[in-house]
Amino acid sequence: MRDLMMPAMERSGAVKKWGFVAMHAAIAAVFMFLLQRFTMNASQESSLLWALTFAVCAAGLAYKQANR
After folding, report:
1. Residue among 60, 10, 51 nearest 31 (CA)
2. Is the pLDDT of residue 44 over 90?
3. Interval 9-35: pLDDT, tens
4. For a designed S-S bond to 66, which of 9, 17, 25, 29 qualifies (C-beta 3.0 to 4.6 A apart)?
5. Alpha-carbon span 36 to 61, nearest angstrom
């Protein structure tokens, strides 16, 4: 019976991992956009580019941490 429940638990873990990665990337993007746009008075295009860059980096770091 325990063997039948194992794949469902593994799927749940995978969903949690990707949710963690997505949350980390989204928070990093929002933080960087707000910092660039309103604190440093950068243009909207520049702020979006920095937000995308930081989101990708944050997602990579979160992915590496989730696989530990």
Report:
1. 51
2. yes
3. 566 777 889 999 999 999 999 999 999
4. 17
5. 21
**What span, in angstroms and rounded, lies between the C-alpha atoms of 57 and 53?**
6
Q: Which amino acid is at 39?
A: T
Contacts 24+ apart (CB under 8 A), 54-57: 54/28, 54/29, 55/25, 55/26, 55/28, 55/29, 56/25, 57/28
> Is 0.70 topped by the overall pTM?
yes
Rounded to whole angstroms, how far apart are CA atoms 56 and 68? Answer: 19
- Does the structure show a pLDDT above 60 at 8? no
In contact, 29 and 55? CB cutoff 8 Å: yes
